C-alpha cells in the first residue's frame, strides 16, 4: 500500500527543506521508489535537489486550452502530459504543480492530478506532498487519507499557534490523518523554556505528537547558497544526524 506523507505549515517554516531532507533519508534507507509532489505555487523543491523543471501542471493546463491532437480526449491528453511532466530520478520521481489557475486557486490543476493519482500511486511506496500554507490541496487532490502529516513551525509563539490551527482544520476538511507530528525548525539550542512551554501546550491541545526540534544549521544555509543538492550533504553532518534520528522515530 502506498503511504502518503504530507507537509504543512505557514510559509517560511521549512516545509521544502524538510521534504528535501526526507528525500535524502528515504534514498539512504532504500525506501524506494517514491513520488515527490511540489504543490507550492513558489515551487523550489527541485532547486534543493539539484533538478531542472521543464513542465508543470500549470503549464499543462494552458496547453489544454489549445487544440488537442486528433482522436485524443482531454483526459487521455492530460494523463499523457502528466507522465511527461514527471522528473524521473534514481529511486524517486518529482512532479511540480507550478503556478495556480488564478489568485489562490489550483482547482483545475488539482482536478487533473486527482484523475491520475490512483494510477501513479500504484508505482510508489510513498507519495510526499510539499504543500503550500493551507491544507485544501490535499482534499482537492483526492488525498483523503494521509498516513503522516508533518506540520512545520518556526521557533516562535505565532508559528507554534499556526501549526496547531493547521492540525485542527484537518477534521473539518474531511481528511483522515493517521499520524500527526509537529516539527519545530531552526530552533535555538538549548531551547528556551518559554518556547518549550508553547510546544508542549500545542502538542497537548491537538492531535499532534512532537516529531522533533531541529536546530538551525549553517550547513543547510551554505548548501542552498552554493546551489548544491541536499542529497550531497555529508552523512556525519550534525543536521543530517539529527533529522535522520527524527525520521527514524517518526517512521518506525
UniProtKB/TrEMBL annotation:
Coiled coil: none annotated. One of its GO terms (molecular function) is ATP hydrolysis activity. Residues 4-228 form the CobQ/CobB/MinD/ParA nucleotide binding domain. This is CO dehydrogenase maturation factor. InterPro entries: CobQ/CobB/MinD/ParA_Nub-bd_dom, CooC, P-loop_NTPase, ParA/MinD_ATPase. It holds the Pfam family CbiA. One of its GO terms (biological process) is negative regulation of cell division. GO terms for cellular component: cytoplasmic side of plasma membrane; cytosol.
Amino acid at each position: 500500500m502506498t503511504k502518503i506523507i504530507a507537509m504543512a505549515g505557514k510559509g517560511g517554516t521549512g516545509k521544502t527543506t524538510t521534504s528535501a531532507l526526507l528525500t535524502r533519508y528515504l534514498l539512504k534507507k532504500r525506501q524506494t521508489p517514491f513520488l515527490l509532489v511540489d504543490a507550492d505555487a513558489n515551487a523550489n523543491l527541485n532547486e534543493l535537489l539539484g533538478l531542472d523543471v521543464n513542465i508543470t501542471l500549470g503549464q499543462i493546463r494552458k496547453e489544454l486550452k489549445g487544440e488537442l491532437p486528433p482522436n485524443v480526449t482531454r483526459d487521455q491528453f492530460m494523463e499523457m502530459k502528466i507522465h511527461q511532466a514527471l522528473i524521473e530520478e534514481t529511486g524517486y520521481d518529482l512532479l511540480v504543480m507550478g503556478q495556480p489557475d488564478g489568485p489562490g486557486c489550483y482547482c483545475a490543476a488539482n482536478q487533473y492530478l486527482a484523475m491520475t493519482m490512483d494510477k501513479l500511486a500504484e508505482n510508489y511506496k510513498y507519495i510526499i506532498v510539499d504543500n503550500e500554507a493551507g491544507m485544501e490541496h490535499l482534499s482537492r487532490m483526492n488525498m483523503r487519507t494521509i498516513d503522516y502529516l508533518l506540520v512545520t513551525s518556526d521557533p516562535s509563539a505565532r508559528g507554534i499557534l499556526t501549526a496547531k490551527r493547521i492540525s485542527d482544520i484537518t477534521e473539518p476538511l474531511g481528511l483522515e490523518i493517521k499520524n500527526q507530528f509537529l516539527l519545530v525548525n531552526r530552533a535555538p539550542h538549548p531551547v528556551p523554556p518559554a518556547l518549550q512551554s508553547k510546544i508542549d501546550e500545542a502538542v497537548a491541545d491537538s492531535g499532534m505528537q512532537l516529531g522533533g526540534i531541529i536546530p538551525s544549521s549553517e550547513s543547510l544555509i551554505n548548501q542552498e547558497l552554493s546551489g548544491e543538492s541536499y542529497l550531497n550533504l555529508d552523512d556525519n553532518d550534525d543536521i543530517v544526524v539529527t533529522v535522520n534520528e527524527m525520521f527514524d522515530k517518526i517512521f518506525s
